[in-house]
Amino acid sequence: MMLGDDLLRWAPELWLSAGALLLLLASVTTRRARHVTSLIFWATWCIAAGSLWFVQLLPHGAAFSHLILLDSLSSVFRWLALGSVGLVGLLLARASDVDPAWRGEALGLLLMVGVGLMLMAEANHLLMAYLSMELVSLGSYCLVGLSRDARSSEAALKYFLFGALVSGIMLFGMSLLFGATGTLSFAEIWNALARLNELSVRVCVLAAALLLAGLAFKISMVPFHLWTPDAYEGAPIAVTALLSVGPKAAGLALVLRVMVALGPMWERLAPTMVLLTIVTMTLGNVVAVSQRNIKRMLAYSTIAQAGYLLIGFVVNSNVGLEALLVYLVAYLFMNLGAFACVQAVCQEPAPAGEEAAPQAVGGESLEAFRGLSRRAPALAASLAVFLLSLAGLPPLAGFIGKFLLFGAAVEAHHPFLALAAVLNSAVALAYYVNIIRLMYVAEAPESAPMPVALSIRAAVAICAAATIGLGLWPHLLLEWLSHLA
Amino acid sequence: MILSALLLLPFLGFIGVLLMPKTSVRSIRRIATVITGLTLILGVSLAATFQPHLTTIQFEERLAWIPQLGVFYHVGVDGLSITMVLLTTLLAFLACLASWSIMERQKEYFALYLLLEVGMLGTFVALDLFLFYVFWEVVLVPMYFLIGIWGGGRREYSAFKFFVYTLAGSLVMLLGILTLYFQAHTFDLTMLAVVGPSLDLRLQQFLFLAFFLGFAIKVPVFPFHTWLPDAHVDAPTPVSVLLAGVLLKMGSYGFLRISYPLFPHAAQWFAPAMATLGVINIVYGGFVAMAQTDFKRLVAYSSVSHMGFVLLGLSSLTPEGMNGALLQMFTHGTITGGMFLLVGVLYDRTHTRQLDAFGGLGAVVPRYTACLYVFGLASLGLPGLSGFVGEFLSLAGTFGVWPWQTAVSVLGIVAAAAYMLTVLQRVLLGPVNPRWAHMPDMTVRELISVVPLFVLVVLVGVYPLFVLSLQDAGIHALIRHVLG
Questions:
Q1: Within an 8 Å CB–CB cutoff, is residue B20 touching chain A?
Q2: β-strands B58-66, B71-77: how paired?
Q3: Which domain holds residue B149?
Q4: Stretch A197-204: mean pLDDT, rounded?
Q5: A79 shares contact with chain B (CB less than 8 Å)
Q6: What is the enclosing helix (H) or strand (E) of A69?
Q7: Are residues B219 and B331 in the same domain?
């Protein structure tokens, strides 16, 4: 029974979808019942994780009439998607910038986006690629707009308009590709491309460029990064955390998939891609230095990080792929960990008895971090670990990833790419260390210890343990990846 | 196992201090002192059981760490590193005693201090390039905090400058490491020393320069020295001791351990430049030191000058010159470490470091005076004290190879005499400044932290073979390897 087999191998996504629908229903009927929605969310997450563990053992291959591909690559990205959904779920649980009445919907949408992220990594067909990206995008637009203040709505609208435009561009690219090759399936596109005449090849290059533009939007690669700082700043912090990791990872997965199909085009696209990679990381880092709002700073930081990640892709080698996967795993933990700390600081509840807006105490200025090491030592130490890992200092997870990525650039004989990455790492240190300086070194007014919610503590602890652990024992991660491959 | 114990001990101390409540300052201090003391004992017993005549790696340990990348936890010592390990454990213990005067946030201080010791020791014992790089970078973070939190003056600026400068250098080194790895497919330094010399000369030169940048910033070689005066002056006393005593040596040790054995042809190609840079360091550092009015800044610039002798000796590729360079690394660590401790003693009492503010202290604090005389004279290279031996050997070894550079660098010794005698004169001689007429002399704890260095300065000055015998076989082996 083919369909039964396929459904079984796709069970994690099915569970997540069912959970998402249930959550949306439940939050309509039982408003303000936080415990019910949390329970449904975590039950769904655990079942999905369990079934994902189980389906790894099943044979790899295409499913649903070759619409999706369940192989070792998608398996890594499914775990990444599930991991980011889980950690963001922890952050959402105490997010004061999300209306409590909408928390159930938020969790439901989060699971839905999770399904989309997984599908993006599994897509083996242009239709599926488009559908999965739209699933992620639509969910994200809503999530960005969940906050009660006007900035959030503005951010959601900007994100939506930019996203809709890019979707259109991408669709146009797909239609050109379909016109030239007569098929939507990645494997058949590859075959068709090999037989094309020069004119059609040119059309296909244009199509590939348009298609990549859509994906570049998801990864926030220059010049399609413009939405990033505004959307990140306006969105609730937990959602920003999700956007900075989930769609980036899934976007890269889809880029990898698409480029397998467009393999024959690669020679013509490569120089531009290498150049854009360098521009992406440089622009992200240079602009981040001058930011005074922590969310905007991290937004530009994620643009720079996307640049590093793209190295693994543009070198087009096995070493590059491995490096990309390692860095993505490291990035998941260190970036979400950093956002968890930011949420703890920026949404510090006002002291009891004072009537204050939720963000009155913390605020999103970098100044909110001043003297944090004395108010919340464990939180400050964790944030320092995340930032140093993002900066690529050993022995933390980010270092191993960067080491492999830079190594991939060297191995593929891209000396300028490697040099640009190295120089960028030095620039990036400036703004990462600036926060550490504010937390530890700068003079600070003495103030009361800062309370940190349990769920955020859990998220921070998980991320910190993973960031340090993967840095000290990276062979475990490498072994896991090689087992999958 | 002794080397792993050497690394594990301060690491356990780091964990131990972290687990203590921050209010029990006395126990934290005791833990740190005991741990650094035990590490010193291990270091001394390491040197005592070290077989000086062997050229092979001793106390070697090799365990797979990241087998997929061929990274090993590979540690060991030979003639090039044994004196550095000894110096590190010694200075770490003495500076820990001096750290008792740290008055705020002691828990964080001692935790970072012990982590710093792990990094420093690891750098000197690592025989795997990846491991070396990890330890090299591990040093940066605690050092940043130690300068930034407990320093004085423009501490934030100085700490940041130190961090960014050294990281920029080490990132370029990382590029070199990666390029080398994809040529040789190993990180093992003993294997790389076999593969490296057979690489294409152009590639060797590129790699040499990439590593050079990383090491040169640490040494520091002119014009990469601008972080040094800021960091040394603004760091708290014990941290200045480690900065000048150990961290600068990490740079020159990198030349001996990595640049020279791995890229011998490039090293010979670069030797004239190295000699010239050494001369610039010696003369420039000496003259800038002469112009200083701040005691600590003067000692900091004298370090630039003294490290020039290390570069000069390295450029000679003769046994005398190289032995002189390595010995100079050891003696500079002890002399400058002692100088910074003495500056700290004075600063703790007077809260000023301006040389004009003192005068006639020789009549007030006799014990302090004796110490300052010995370290000052050793620093200017008086025969009979240890500073002379290293500088003489490196000049003697280099004269036959680079006569002009050597001749010019003697100017630096004249400058050293000028600035050191000025220091002694302004601080100790002349009429007593009435403000300090009742200054207390050095306490027992301060004496304990200075006297061992005092003894070493005299001992090595009178009987240099005491240190030379440990390193000589290693130096000869290195020169044989480089010259083929």
A1: no
A2: antiparallel
A3: 1-262
A4: 82
A5: no
A6: strand A68-70
A7: no
Say whether pLDDT at A94 is over 90.
no
| Cα of B113 vs its chain's centroid, Å | 16
Mean pLDDT, chain B, whole residue set = 92
pLDDT digits 0-9 by tens, B116-158: 999 999 999 999 999 999 999 999 999 999 999 998 888 999 9
Both B142 and B224 in one domain: the answer is yes
**A412–B contact, CB cutoff 8 A:** no
Q: Is there a contact between B148 and A429 if contact means CB atoms under 8 Å apart?
A: no
Tell me if chain B has a CB within 8 Å of the CB of A437: yes
Q: CB B182 to CB A425 under 8 A?
A: no
Same domain as B439, residue B340: yes
Render pLDDT for B274-331 as a digit per residue (tens, 0 to 9). 999 999 999 999 999 999 999 999 999 999 999 999 999 999 999 999 999 999 999 9
Decide if A313 contacts A339 (C-beta within 8 A).
no
**3-class DSSP state of B59:** strand
User: Are B163 and A407 within 8 A, CB to CB?
Assistant: no
For chain A, how many residues are written?
485
B1 band by pLDDT with thresholds 50, 70 and 90: confident
**B236, B262, B288 — which closes off a domain?**
B262
Looking at residue B212, its pLDDT comes to 95
Which of B207, B237, B262 terminates a domain? The answer is B262
What does the alpha-carbon distance between residue A362 and residue A369 come to, in Å, rounded to a whole number?
Answer: 8
Residue type at position B230: D
Whether chain B has a CB inside 8 Å of the CB on A395: the answer is: yes
Query: Encoding tokens for residue A22?
Result: 């249930």
Q: Quick one: B41 and B181 in the same domain?
A: yes
> What's the DSSP call for residue A60?
P
Closest CB from A388, A407, A478 relative to B141: A388
- What mean pLDDT do residues A302-311 have? 94
pLDDT for B370-403, tens place per residue?
999 999 999 998 998 999 999 999 999 999 999 9
Closest residue in B to A434 (Cα) is B160
CA B37 – CA A45 distance, rounded (Å): 52
* B250 and B298 together in one domain: no
- The verdict on A289 touching B (C-beta cutoff 8 Å) is no
Kindly identify which residue of chain A lies nearest to residue B157, measuring between CA atoms.
A437
Q: Across the interface, which of A419, A441, A475 has its CB nearest the CB of B159?
A: A441
Which residue of B131, B143, B174 to mutate against A (max A Cβ within 10 Å)? B174
Q: Please indicate, yes or no, whether residues B162 and B277 belong to a single structural domain of this protein.
A: no
Residues B404 and B420 in one domain: yes
Q: B167–A478: do the CB atoms touch at under 8 Å?
A: no
Q: B321 and B364: one domain?
A: yes
* Residue A58, min C-alpha distance to chain B (Å): 26
Torsion from C-alpha of A115, A121, A126, A131, nearest 10 degrees: 20
- CA distance, residue B165 to nearest chain A CA (Å): 9
- List of chain A residues whose C-beta atoms are within 8 Å of the C-beta of residue B167: 393, 425-426, 429
Q: Which residues contact A290 (CB under 8 A, 6 or more apart)?
A: none
How many angstroms separate the CA of residue B478 from the nearest CA in chain A? 29
Model confidence at A28, pLDDT cuts 50, 70, 90, reads confident
Domain count, chain B: 2
DSSP assignment of A365-405: BGGGGTTHHHH-HHHHHHHHHHHHHHHT-TTSHHHHHHHHH
Q: For A418, which of B108, B167, B175 is closest by C-beta distance?
A: B175
Give me the pLDDT at residue B398, please: 93
Contact criterion met (CB below 8 Å) for B76 and B57: yes
What tens digit of pLDDT does each residue of B94-112 get?
999 999 888 888 999 999 9
Mean pLDDT for all residues in chain A: 88
Task: Determine the Cα–Cα distance for residues A206 and A200; give it in Å rounded to an integer.
Answer: 10
Distance in Å, alpha carbon of B223 to nearest chain A alpha carbon:
19
